[in-house]
């Protein structure tokens, strides 16, 4: 029939277009320049090690996962009540963050759990309420959702519900977090904004090995339940001189990494390194002086440091990997608009992930890379 002929013709046209697309893709210099494995694992940022801190004693070269291991080692050595548990942690964990700790401290202090996130956090709440220093690992941040009820309805509210008679403040939940280049929906998400709506917990994301160890030890020592998200793409990419002894970096204090006068850049975790490159590009290509702030603690966040910077620069750009709608950049933007409205010289800009599930092969298009952030800087300066 006529309709069948039209349908076959359209299908044939689609097949020809698809075939042509595959041919062009194979011939594209962008696709032939590097082997597939190299392209897939290419990072969207460059990590620049920071100077070794001198105030905490002798240092040793560590990557980020080794600095986490060092923090856990210090805790187990100094606190006989400390226990570490989660899926595969007895064997070192997926990213090797607990490697060697079971052999050193015994199977009663570093042990595996069933594959049940709600059970992991529930056990941690009970252990912490009984007086133990409980360090739970959720294997990927994407897997934390089954434990959502335990975290927001039990851990976060236990002290409040009991009138301070009981608490689980000695609970720390660690989890690998953030995009990795090819992780897709179950291995690249950034769920921190889901938990920022819940009073009673603290949320922390480090940018490198020195901060990872100091902030993790602060979370473990803090008398409130904490969620510590570790940027998994930095586990091996970030290498610095890290103090071997225990030390703490205060929570809820943002750090100004670079002072500037024209525009404030705010990020946390991996995105700090993206914005560091954006600041250099803005200075070189536009003559724009950017002030770069690492928020470090997402909740409770350091409003004073951010607002003080915006009063000085008059402009604010916030960037994170999570979707833009309902992301924590919206909370920062709202607060700054209320506190610094008369100082703003341009609308606040949010450069974030799209409002879609985290993609697989299209992850390079999804992430807020330096080019997207740089375009936002240009728009703000020309506003």
UniProtKB/TrEMBL annotation:
Any one cellular-component term (Gene Ontology): mitochondrial matrix
Transketolase-like pyrimidine-binding domain location: 62-237
Reported function: Together with BCKDHA forms the heterotetrameric E1 subunit of the mitochondrial branched-chain alpha-ketoacid dehydrogenase (BCKD) complex. The BCKD complex catalyzes the multi-step oxidative decarboxylation of alpha-ketoacids derived from the branched-chain amino-acids valine, leucine and isoleucine producing CO2 and acyl-CoA which is subsequently utilized to produce energy. The E1 subunit catalyzes the first step with the decarboxylation of the alpha-ketoacid forming an enzyme-product intermediate.
Catalytic reactions of this protein: N(6)-[(R)-lipoyl]-L-lysyl-[protein] + 3-methyl-2-oxobutanoate + H(+) = N(6)-[(R)-S(8)-2-methylpropanoyldihydrolipoyl]-L-lysyl-[protein] + CO2
CDD domains to which the protein is assigned, alphabetical: TPP_PYR_E1-PDHc-beta_like (cd07036)
Enzyme class: oxidoreductase
PANTHER family: 2-OXOISOVALERATE DEHYDROGENASE SUBUNIT BETA, MITOCHONDRIAL, 2-OXOISOVALERATE DEHYDROGENASE SUBUNIT BETA-RELATED
GO molecular function, one term: branched-chain 2-oxo acid dehydrogenase activity
Designated name of the protein: 2-oxoisovalerate dehydrogenase subunit beta, mitochondrial
Domain of life the protein comes from: Eukaryota
Places the protein is found: Mitochondrion matrix
Keyword Transit peptide attributed: yes
Cofactor entry: thiamine diphosphate
A single BP term in Gene Ontology: response to nutrient
Keyword tags: Mitochondrion, Oxidoreductase, Signal, Transit peptide
Subunit record text: Heterotetramer of 2 alpha/BCKDHA and 2 beta chains/BCKDHB that forms the branched-chain alpha-keto acid decarboxylase (E1) component of the BCKD complex. The branched-chain alpha-ketoacid dehydrogenase is a large complex composed of three major building blocks E1, E2 and E3. It is organized around E2, a 24-meric cubic core composed of DBT, to which are associated 6 to 12 copies of E1, and approximately 6 copies of the dehydrogenase E3, a DLD dimer.
TM segment ranges: none
Signal peptide as annotated in the record: 1-33
Any Pfam family the entry gives: Transket_pyr
